[in-house]
Amino acid sequence: xxxxxxxxxxxxxxxxxxxxxxxxxxxxxxxxxxxxxxxxxxxxxxxxxxxxxxxxxxxxxxxxxxxxxxxxxxxxxxxxxxxxxxxxxxxxxxxxxxxx
Length: 100
Hints:
Elements: E1 3-8, E2 15-20, E3 26-31, H1 32-40, H2 46-49, H3 54-90
Antiparallel strand pairs: 1-2, 2-3
């Protein structure tokens, strides 16, 4: 499977997308606060987008796909454990994470 990066960073609503080259399907997308946070934390580096070397572009695609997976997993963990942890902390019952 071959991917390419579609990014428009110098506009009012910047975005970065990783697309499947064969069918144009978006496999990873970053925009808004999520993109701003990734840039601020250094998860996405602007200089990588202007490097024409194939190796750099391949590494950028890998990094973006990995970041998308990490963000999705983090959201799922927050949904699963976030409410339980928040309610138990409010009630004074400070169980270990493994107890949930």
